[in-house]
Amino acid sequence: MPTPMRYIDEYRDPGLARKLLDEIRRKATRRWTIMEICGGQTHSIIRNGIDQLLPDTIELVHGPGCPVCVTPLESIERALAIAAREEVIFTSFGDMLRVPGHAKDLFMVRSTGGDVRIVFSPLDALQIARDNPSKEVVFFAVGFETTAPANAMAVYQAAREGRENFSVLVSQVMVPPAMRVILSSLGNRVQGFLAAGHVCAVMGYEEYEPVAREFHVPIVPTGFEPVDLLAGILKTVELLEEGRAEVVNRYGRVVSREGNPVAREIMAKVFEVIDRPWRGIGLIPDSGLGLREAFARFDAEKKFHASNICARESPLCMSGSVLQGMLKPDGCPAFAKECTPAHPLGATMVSSEGACAAYYNYHTTVL
Amino acid sequence: MTITPTCPTPIMQHETVQMAHGAGGRLSQALMQRVFMPHLSNAFLDLLDDQAKLDLPPGQTAFTTDTYVVSPVFFPGGNIGELAVNGTVNDLAVGGARPLYLSAGFVLEEGLLLAELETIVRSMAEAARRAGVMIVTGDTKVVGKGQCDRIFINTSGIGVIREGVDLSCRNLKAGDSIILSGTVGDHGMAIMTSREGLSFQSRITSDCAALNGMIGSILDELPCAIHAMRDPTRGGVAATLNELASSSSVGIEINEITIPVKPDVRGACELLGIDPLHVANEGKLVVAVAADNAQQALDLIHSFDLGRDAVIIGSVVDDHPDMVVMRTLYGSRRIIDLPLGEQLPRIC
Predict the structure, then answer these.
(1) pLDDT digits (tens, 9 = 90+) for B301-340
(2) A367–B335: do the CB atoms touch at under 8 Å?
(3) How many domains does chain A have?
(4) Residues 218 to 277 of A: which have CB under 8 A from any B CB?
(5) Where does the pLDDT of residue B108 fall: very low under 50, low under 70, confident under 90, or very high at 90 and above?
(6) Which of chain B's residues have a Cβ under 8 Å away from the Cβ of A10?
(7) Residues B327-340 as b or e (16 or more Cβ within 10 Å = b)
(8) Mean pLDDT in residue range B178-189
């Protein structure tokens, strides 16, 4: 065995995982359907084969928490148009570069002369703007509540130093409104949630309490390692069996009820809640974030007049049903046929966090 | 004020590579004399002919070529020069050949520091000496600023295949053991963590090394039991195993618990969301060996410094042809697929 790595290996311990699995098997007296919200959790589940190890009584369905997956096609088209401009250095997290628009992706924009750069933080993009005063630097601000604080900070700092050559293309969404949509839909099968640990690290879990009460579902903030996931599943099963619709935290080393007040404050300062379209799902009221009026000059969509660019999805792609837990990736007729990671029809097949990509890359059902 | 008219002679001493260094004139000669010959001089190269005339020992000839464009040019644990020698030596050696002669073609970017070029050439000479090969012919071109990334090197190599050895990625048979000669991902993560834009530092160094010594010993001892060898470079061990499986139309099954990964490499991969099995290596070997001889091969590999962390990571199976499947730490199974193009750090 390699040298143990703190905060990782204790949550990957096969012995501990086995104990939790036994406990889940013992506790589950009937069938339960549980949704893990976050794409990172989906990947860890499929990668480690946790779905294969769970008893038949527990079905995991995969949630909408993949930032790349739910970024609407029109945002991708706008990114491609802006990135192709002569004066622009377009910066993005690596995941977004491979997401195809109608005719091309950001890699192709780069190969035809666009200056497209992968960054690891929006603050790196801001630094590029400082280093290139004659260029317009745009950051693709995609993601859930996890990426919002750093994106807000970059805009806030840019405003404070009066940096006019920096802007963000915002496609920022939030988890609780999507949970409400899933729970309200006619075909809903989800009886309990593993809430996304990193989202809860920022936002806390206070805001999930009304969702749990209103829809009578247990919600368990859960981490990403196998032992974290199994502990989250066990707690959800216990709550379901006892009929308790409560929020119980199982990611205590990272998540508190109030979340991170500093992160929430900077988010609230820069962003306001707006309606957002979700790829595969459609418009969800009050589900996203947009720049406040005071920061409107950092809005790349306005700066480059990109708001009128629209796009249409492939009619074959059923990623909306996948993202809402109504369809397993391998239940889609196009899965691994018309749709593969090399030729994705929808973003759930592109992103390293997408459920379809996870099934395609790791899942032994394709054997 | 009086001006003394002088007739300036052309500057012959430069700190950096000039376009004229590649023009075939005096500066080209100066570059040869000052930078290349002091390190690479040998009986073939000293003749300064347009070609090397070689007498090869008996046996089938192996011939290979590879071009090196690594960025950054200098990385923890090596530089593009030794990479260009070791990489081509390894490509010959994994085919069962004794590497003998190399060519070296340089594309230099105008403005490259001559001192850096000399360091690179010196490393090539040292790497060639260590691997027991000679660089017998070469070429230099200079391109304008911005037309290449400082320096690109192409090396081609010739070797002679050992009698009785038949290594091919089509030779895997069900039951074969798969040996991996050491930790995965060292080279790729050394490169990735030394690139600009990453705000963490690591102590990861490249594993760049010539494998022909170790491979020679294995083949001397077990000429018939070894079915295939590969050095898992780009695409990592995952790509190599997939190539072996599909070329031989067999399945490969590996065990997650056996895969050796250095803690720093693991940490960096965790942070960037990259699978170490997809990360490049430059001094590692994957061996498919008949099961009965696996322990003997492993013991032999262990006797080399380069192979001290070697392990049997799995075996060749009849099931799931063309596919590599890994048994996870938890006893479940997952597919190990080819990486799709560039490794992209994840969002969250």
Answers:
(1) 999 999 999 999 999 999 999 999 999 999 999 999 887 7
(2) yes
(3) 2
(4) 226
(5) very high
(6) none
(7) bbbbebbbbbbbbb
(8) 96
A328 domain-assigned: no
Rounded to whole angstroms, the Cα distance separating A325 from A181 reads 11
Whole-model pTM: value is: 0.88
Q: Using alpha carbons, select from A196, A213, A214 the residue that is nearest to residue A205.
A: A196
**Residues in contact with A90: Cβ distance below 8 Å, sequence separation at least 6, in sequence order:** A79, A82, A83, A106, A109, A114, A115, A116, A117, A138, A140
Mutate to test the interface with B, among A48, A91, A140 (most CBs of B within 10 A): A48
Residues B261 and B249: their CA atoms lie apart, in Å, by 28
pLDDT band, very low/low/confident/very high, at A315 (cuts 50, 70, 90): confident
Chain B partners within 8 Å of A342 (Cβ): 340
Chosen for mutation from A19, A47, A254 (greatest number of chain B CBs closer than 10 Å) is: A47
Percentage of residues in chain A having pLDDT higher than 70: 98
- DSSP string for residues in B236-301: HHHHHHHHHHHHHT-EEEEEGGG----HHHHHHHHHHT--GGGS--SS--EEEE-GGGHHHHHHHH
Q: Quick one: A103 and A217 in the same domain?
A: no
- Of the two residues A4 and B134, the one the predictor is more confident about is B134
The Cα-based distances of B328 to A57, A278, A329, B245, B256 in angstroms read: 22, 34, 22, 19, 5
ipTM value for the complex = 0.82
State the residue range of the domain holding A274: 69-174+259-303
The domains of chain B, with CATH numbers, are 19-161 (3.30.1330.10), 177-336 (3.90.650.10)
Residues B25-45: tens digit of each pLDDT: 888 999 999 999 999 999 999
CB B176, CB B315: distance < 8 Å: yes
pLDDT tens track for A44-92? 999 999 999 999 999 999 999 999 889 999 999 999 999 999 999 999 9
pLDDT exceeds 60 at position A366: no
Interface contact A93-B345, CB threshold 8 A: yes
Name chain B contacts of A117, Cβ cutoff 8 Å.
Answer: 197
A140 and A163, same domain (yes or no): yes
Residue A333 falls inside a structural domain? no
Task: Give the DSSP H/E element, type plus range, for residue A55.
Answer: none
Q: Is residue A363 part of a domain?
A: no
Count CB-CB contacts under 10 A for residue A307. Answer: 11
pLDDT of residue A1: 45
